Predict the 3D structure of the following.
Amino acid sequence: MMAAHPFVRAGSAWALLTVVLVTTSVACTASGTSDDDGDSASSCAYRVEYENRTYTGAEAKGFAPGDKLGTATLPACDDTPDDDNDGQATPTSTTAYAIKGVDPGIAIALKESSDDVIFINLDSDTELPEIKKLIQGP
């Protein structure tokens, strides 16, 4: 029986490490999003600030917008700082609306968002019955 030389075993370990690093690098590079034209798409979180609370967007079904609440702010987003395109460099104002049957401290809707998106307060519990119903549908 012939023993493997220590450098051969070390070389195999380095080769394996190189494969892992290259694979990881490719996976990270490929993880960016793009649209149908191959252009990079924004990766900023869909968030809004209203009444000193931060809300994040979530798909919802069957909700009815309620009364106009006031002005909400979409925070500035520059997810690719070196692309010579600053994206949304300043915060943008929008109109927040209540959702019928839901406390605005828990979730709101926006005038400019699609009909199936609500914004849930990050400090609230998404397991609350009224939120579960909106996310899962009737």
User: Anything to note?
Assistant: The first helix runs from residue 6 to 30. Residues 47-136 form one domain. The CA atoms of residues 78 and 87 lie 6 Å apart.
